[in-house]
Fold this sequence. Notes:
alpha/beta, five-stranded parallel sheet, 4 helices
Amino acid sequence: MKPSPTLRIHIIDDDPAISLLLVRLLSSMGHQVSSFQNPTACPVYTNPHCDCPSDLPCADVIISDIMMPKMDGIEFFKNQRQRGCKAPDANKALMSASVSPLQQTAVAELGCHFIRKPFHIAEIRQWLEECGERISSGRERMQRAESSPFHACVPGKDPVEWSPSCD
Length: 167
């Protein structure tokens, strides 16, 4: 089994105790962890008319509480998707001690993971390994595409690399 890559993880939770616990836990696993008390800290929200300004995801994994002031986690992930967030939906997780049927449906529609509080460290570790595998395979596909001999040439323009769809 390959060692898990170091992941860039964003934690969004208004409960400082939960945030601190997750930061310490995930950092001890070798990950780079940032914590925010509310989802509007995401760069997309500094300008409500702006799409994600980055070509690459700002994080490999995003974990958000569902119940927060200003904006709940479901609304946060929906807004991210609409504004072009580059982080894979499967590498996003919503946390809550309880979840309504409507919220369960929303989580499923978003394609993200659900973590029930109180959470089990083994469950988070397993999910992060899966996230790492998705990130690693995505990086490998990008490297293969970058080294591909295929180019699209337009007369009078520089060659443009062509990367076949790997999905």
